[in-house]
Amino acid sequence: AGVRSPAGASKQDVRERVWDHLEASGLAAFPRPVHGRIPNFEGSHQACGSIRELEVFRKANEIKVDPDKPLEGVRLAALQARKTLLVPTPRLRTGLFNKIVPPPGATKEMLQICATSQGVKDFSVPIGLDGKARVDLVVVGSVAVSEKGWRIGKGEGYADMEYAMMVSMGAVQEDTPVITIVHDCQVLDIAEELLDDHDLTVDYILTPTRTIKTNCKRLKPRGIMWHKASYSATGDLRVSYEMLGKIPILKSLRYREKQAGKDVILKDEHPDVANTAKPMALNEKAMAENTRPQAATDSAQIGQQCVESNSLSPRLEGSGTFTTVYVGNIPPSTRVSELKHALREFHATPLRLNWQGAQHRAFLDYKDKATAASAVSSLQGLSLGGKTLRVELAKNQRNKGQVEINRQK
Q1: CATH code of the domain containing 54
Q2: Is the per-residue pLDDT at 307 higher than 70?
Q3: Which of 98, 125, 126, 373 is deepest in the core (most CB within 10 A)?
Q4: What is the pLDDT of residues 97-125, one digit of tens each?
Q5: Which of 213, 240, 258 is at the close of a domain?
Q6: 27 CB-near residues (< 8 Å, 6+ apart)
Q7: Per-residue pLDDT tens for 203-262?
Q8: Domain closes at, from 181, 213, 245
Q9: What pLDDT is attached to residue 228?
Q10: Is residue 77 part of a domain?
């Protein structure tokens, strides 16, 4: 249908040919140019509308749909059918999913707004790793796809990563169907050697003129591939040490799988690094001295308040000017040592930790606002004892650079 994949073409070659053809043929739709995107195209709403005819859609209760513009019609169809709609957060910066919650009595026009990218922002609630999602159907965007179900995305690998994370958290099963929506010209032959074991395949392809059942037998990703290199030769994103800083919920999932005894060492990470804290780590001996009068064991600290300081930091004895982070929703059974361990794992160790177990909270003091903000970002999605913690700047500091904190005696 106008696009051919020559022998020896790379994934990026295929992407460029599809993007060029969509623009040159007048098939490209807003936002433009389509280069570097999951491309929107003329007839996307017609292609999306045909999903209503699929039995897998009618039977599904919970549907995950990517936030791309050409999938807007699928998001609308899911909302109109009163299904639970989950949309991944952009680049997974603030979590894994947003659950779209239209206002009570939403009209058709309001549902149309909820299906847009702005509607996803305005009418959604975050769902973390402990959100107990059970996805019955996955809908992803593509740059190119073959009738065999082999898919090429825009090159950043987020759809593959999202699916692997859903597998790891038990949100999808081996037989959970995957659908993609494309223009007819985006359906072309893709050489099998371009596919890697982390690539997501699809079971159905919907175009403005066709519904294709691929009968794909290739296995889908079976979880996070921690050992893989950061980028493949084709530019597809895989897990790297650098990525953990960019995707906080990925760091949380890695921590959870490490606690379960899985090998989560990255290919670009020395094994020793995974178990070593950054230089800002709390001085354990000093902390033990500080806490011994208050509690003999971690279990004794539950329900009590304790303040742990790094005695090597002279600033703690100086002005007392720091930026404080609030950690809430801590399960009653959690020990302070568990929180300390998680903080070291996430390289978010504070200068001082104020543990208030009875109130299910803790306060973390950092040297400045930038360090505190980095800690908040790193700890988003962190779960302990089956609960996702609430992590944010302390209430009286959200609009200030630093504040004077009261010394705990």
Answers
A1: 3.40.50.10420
A2: no
A3: 98
A4: 888 999 998 999 999 999 998 998 889 88
A5: 213
A6: 21, 41, 42, 183, 185
A7: 999 999 999 999 998 888 777 777 663 434 333 335 666 666 667 677 777 777 777 777
A8: 213
A9: 60
A10: yes
The position carrying tokens 């978010």 is 348
Determine if the peptide bond prior to 90 is cis (ω within 30°).
no
Q: How many CA atoms lie within 13 A of 58 on its CB side?
A: 5
Does 350 sit behind a cis peptide bond, omega within 30 degrees of 0 on the bond before it? no
Structural domain tally of the chain? 2
Q: How far apart are CA 405 and CA 319, in angstroms?
A: 9
- Rounded to whole angstroms, the Cα distance separating 60 from 44 reads 22
State pTM to two decimals: 0.67
Q: What angle do CA 321, 323, 326 make, to 5 degrees?
A: 135
**Predicted pLDDT of residue 273:** 46
Looking at residue 56, the DSSP 8-state letter turns out to be: H
**196/329 Cα distance (integer angstroms):** 40
Please give the pLDDT value at position 235: 36
Q: Is residue 254 included in any domain, yes or no?
A: no
The per-residue DSSP string of 337-381 comes to: HHHHHHHHHTT---SEEEEEGGGTEEEEEESSHHHHHHHHHHHTT
pLDDT tens-digit series, residues 138-186:
999 999 999 999 999 998 777 777 888 888 778 888 889 999 999 999 9
Total number of residues shown for the chain: 409
* CATH code of the domain in which 327 resides: 3.30.70.330
Whole domain around residue 48: which residue ranges?
A: 11-213
Contact yes or no for 402/368 (Cβ under 8 A): yes
As given in the structure block, the two tokens for residue 325 are: 């982070």
Q: What is the spatial distance between Cα 119 and Cα 99, in angstroms, rounded to a whole number?
A: 11
